[in-house]
């Protein structure tokens, strides 16, 4: 008999219990009773978009006098602990969401932007160059997005939103016919590395919702599933990504210029690689600096982390970080770069994609938080109308939410205008113009054309970032300079600054997986209810693992080993790689893949860039991962 909670609990907590010690049984996901909870709106991800949606829903509750139950699930141990961004915030959406936010004594937007500039770096020099007017816009704030998100979370809770940190959305709950989403399943707790139930085992629970909003950030696991299942990318370009790596330093007081915003292009990246750096002077003597590298880079020998550390050797950054300066934080995350052409269809039966789950970054501005927040607000308005129109007492398969009004309202909003103006900037780098031509075109478009052109650049070949990777035989290895501590350090030293922690005795959440039967219609598997929550077919056997090692080591020089910004992946010597029987020990050519999943900082680089496209990032136990506080 299923346990169903009808009331509103004050707070969900993981129950601690003990049972007599017994032999561990393998967990069978198709034969488990899950507690369920009925809610009006379930939001996956307590980031800027998800929290803006939650706050707006509660505002509408107050305005219209109809009670609405809103639950936000957050995989991080605390709200904000998995949030990483540059960041310079354009407050347009915040002004609309919380008029008078400046009067709140606890707000964290303490440092207005005082100046902006763009610099071209050569190996030993830097030159100030004209910057896109979108980038030069004032009225912005240099912030820690982690802190801003935590602040929004506190406001949401004050308004009655139920925010549950440590509850990771692990799967979508479908209707019996599989054609609509009925909510979200959280992950199991208390499984060992082999998937057996420990004494502390608890099954995940199902949040059954009238509307499900996916606000997981770039390349979220549930968003990927919804996009594939409901074919939301049909007629749209593939999403393209950059990997942003950043550090926060407390700099010598003589080097600190509060509110100064600097963007760089050129060195250390070559003329074939898209990307650029930044240095933002925050409040309290802090400077955030970093490097974004387009993940359509071709050379598998490139190491994003080593490029970032090398950038700090440049005289400009060496001077900035000289004197009494201390590094206090490090992190990395993929970001959406595809622009308007890569935004998928936003709604599906039962819910919608918001924020970076859809991809609203304005590349010319190097800002996306304002658009993410606005998308959450617009989705909230559509969701409230859907909930108010339904007549059933609880979420029902007979009334799947139609969120198409959200898609319409976003297309009519300033978010669409913001993205339309710069729609050709990033795509121009993947045309016959090349990187140099893309730089020239982007300058002309941003300074003069402002998007007022009859053409729109499209990814006509449908190439993903992974497909841009060349074989190692076509590329030259890159020699990086030695580290110069404390200015630049080895990778594991940096990872310790993230506060990352995962329980080691849990299933590896980074799966070497091959999906089967692409292109099935949405109900294909839902028509077989005995499959339980299994929604997609895939294989994770020895053949898949062996082929992964063969191609990635033999043809791509072990790209993941140098590309991952947390040293999660290693291709190590293994004499028995060809004869091993355990899947995780199977390899090729005397090499096997070792996945140090406890290091994972949830950046999603592997899922995006691995040339074989056979790494799937799934959620670990809730609460695991980085613990960002000032990023």
Please summarize what this structure is.
This protein has 14 helices and 27 strands. It is of the alpha+beta class and 631 residues long.
Question: Can you characterise this structure?
Answer:
With 631 residues, the chain is α+β, with helices and mostly antiparallel strands. The chain has 14 helices and 27 strands. Strands 1, 2, 3, 8, 9, 10, 13, 19 and 20 form a 9-stranded mixed beta sheet that branches. A 7-stranded mixed beta sheet has the order 6-5-15-16-17-14-18, covered by helices on one side. A 3-stranded antiparallel beta sheet has the order 24-26-25. It is globular. 49% of the residues are buried.
Taking all residues together, what is the mean pLDDT?
90
Q: Count of DSSP helices?
A: 14
The oligomerization state is single chain
Low-confidence stretches: 1-11, 13-21, 519-534
- Please describe the biggest sheet, giving its number of strands, its sense, and whether it closes into a barrel: 9 strands, mixed
- What is the 3D shape? globular
Strand content: 15-25%
Radius of gyration: 24 Å
Measured as a percent range, the helix fraction is: 10-25%
How many β strands by DSSP? 27
Class from secondary-structure proportions? alpha+beta
| N/C terminus separation | 45 Å
């Amino acid at each position: 008999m299923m346990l169903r909670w009808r009331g509103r609990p004050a707070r969900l907590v993981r129950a601690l219990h003990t049972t007599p010690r017994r032999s561990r049984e393998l967990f069978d996901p198709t034969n488990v009773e899950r507690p369920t909870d009925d809610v009006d709106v379930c939001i996956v991800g307590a980031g800027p978009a998800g929290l803006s949606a939650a706050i707006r829903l509660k505002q509408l509750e107050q305005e219209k006098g109809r009670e609405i139950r809103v639950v936000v699930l957050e995989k991080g141990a605390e709200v904000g602990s998995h949030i990483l961004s540059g960041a310079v915030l354009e407050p347009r959406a915040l002004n609309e969401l919380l008029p008078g936010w400046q009067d709140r004594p606890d707000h964290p937007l303490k440092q207005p932007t005082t100046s902006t500039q763009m610099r071209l770096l050569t190996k030993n020099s830097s030159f100030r160059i004209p910057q896109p007017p979108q980038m030069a816009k004032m009225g912005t704030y240099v912030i820690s997005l982690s802190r801003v998100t935590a602040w929004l979370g506190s406001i949401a809770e004050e308004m009655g939103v139920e925010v549950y940190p440590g509850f990771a959305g692990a799967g979508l709950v479908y209707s019996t016919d599989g054609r609509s989403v009925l909510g979200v399943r959280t992950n199991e707790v208390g499984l060992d590395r082999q998937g057996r139930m420990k004494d502390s085992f608890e099954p995940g629970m199902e949040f059954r919702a009238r509307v499900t909003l996916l606000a997981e950030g770039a390349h979220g696991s549930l968003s990927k599933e919804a996009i594939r299942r409901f074919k939301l990318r049909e007629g749209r370009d593939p999403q393209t990504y950059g990997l942003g790596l950043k550090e926060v330093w407390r700099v010598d007081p003589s080097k600190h210029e509060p509110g100064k915003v600097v963007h760089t292009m050129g060195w250390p990246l070559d003329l074939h690689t898209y990307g650029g750096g930044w240095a933002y002077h925050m409040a309290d003597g802090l400077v955030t600096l970093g490097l974004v590298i387009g993940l359509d880079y071709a050379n598998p020998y490139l190491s994003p982390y080593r490029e970032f550390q090398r950038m700090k050797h440049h005289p400009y950054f060496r001077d900035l970080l000289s004197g009494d300066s201390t590094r206090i934080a490090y992190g990395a995350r993929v970001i959406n770069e595809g622009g308007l052409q890569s935004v998928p269809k936003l709604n599906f039966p039962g819910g919608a994609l918001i924020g970076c789950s859809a991809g609203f970054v304005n590349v010319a501005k190097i800002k996306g938080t304002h658009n993410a927040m606005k998308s959450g607000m617009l989705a909230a308005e559509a969701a409230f109308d859907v909930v108010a129109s339904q007549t059933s007492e609880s979420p029902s398969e007979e009334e799947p939410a139609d969120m198409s009004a959200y898609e319409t309202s976003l297309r009519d909003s300033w978010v669409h205008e913001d993205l339309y103006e710069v729609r050709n900037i990033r795509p121009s780098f993947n045309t016959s113009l090349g990187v140099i031509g893309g730089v020239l075109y982007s300058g002309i478009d941003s300074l003069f054309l402002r998007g007022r052109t009859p053409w729109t650049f499209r990814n006509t070949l449908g190439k993903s970032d992974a497909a841009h990777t060349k074989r190692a035989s076509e590329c030259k290895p890159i020699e990086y300079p030695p580290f110069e501590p404390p200015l630049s350090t080895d990778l594991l030293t940096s990872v310790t600054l993230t506060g990352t922690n995962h329980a080691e005795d849990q299933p590896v959440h980074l799966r070497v997986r091959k999906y089967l039967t692409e292109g099935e219609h949405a109900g294909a598997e839902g028509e077989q209810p005995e499959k339980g929550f299994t929604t997609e077919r895939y294989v994770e056997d020895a053949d898949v693992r062996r082929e992964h090692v063969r191609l990635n080591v033999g043809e791509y020089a072990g790209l993941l080993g140098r590309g991952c910004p947390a040293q999660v992946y290693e291709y190590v010597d293994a004499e028995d790689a060809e004869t091993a029987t355990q899947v995780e020990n199977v390899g090729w050519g005397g090499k096997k893949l070792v996945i140090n999943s406890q290091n994972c900082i949830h950046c999603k680089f592997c899922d995006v860039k691995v040339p074989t496209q056979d790494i799937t990032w799934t959620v670990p136990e809730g609460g695991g991962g980085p613990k960002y506080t000032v990023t």
